[in-house]
Amino acid sequence: MDVYEVSQEITDTCGFLSMLLNKKPSEELIEHLRKNCLETLPSTTDENNNDGLTQGSSLILKYIEETKEEHLAEVAQELAVDWTRLFRGIAPGYGPLPPYEAVYIGKDSQERCTQIFLELNKEYSLHGLSVDCSCSRPDYVGVQVAFLHYLCKHEIELLNQENYKEAQKIKTYYTKFATEHLDKWIVVFCKEAEKYAKTDFFKGLLKFLPEFVLKLTDDR
What we know:
Helix content is about 70%, strand content about 0%. It has ten helices and no strands. Helix 2 packs across helix 4, helix 7 packs antiparallel against helix 8 and helix 9 (about 185-195) packs antiparallel against helix 10. It starts with a helix and ends with a helix.
């Protein structure tokens, strides 16, 4: 693939992950996945490839295929329960610790938590963005992935304008962001969360996500 195709695949994948991490599964989401999941996931279906991207994609697609004849409401409910268990930090023992950066690398101490919030909010504000803290925390995995998606879309815009120098700067920036933030804790979270996942869909997502972040940071 050329530079544009690689960047477009990364952008699409960030968008896909952001959608799943930031929205509780609904009937509309299930319908969208049934129609578009195969096209949205990157081409990682090589049977001889046993990495997390391939395993994760296979599990996600397997779930979509096996539940395609079930009522949308039933599938949405099953996934919504699993999503809440995995990403909302409802109660100890019910699911993993919530996917907040400060929880995994700062032991959620107030001082370290504040430092991480300040660092992330500064990154977001540099691009004219802010986080509605009544809905989520700036260190939530979904917010960080959504930020990557925003930056990737900007990179695509620059490539379309043939502004390759600025596009490379954006790529370097978002790779550095992923390295300094997600890459430091996402593997630990996903390994712990896998113990609680009940559906192949989210088992697949938890295999796919850390491998994608690793690939993103290794490509710098």
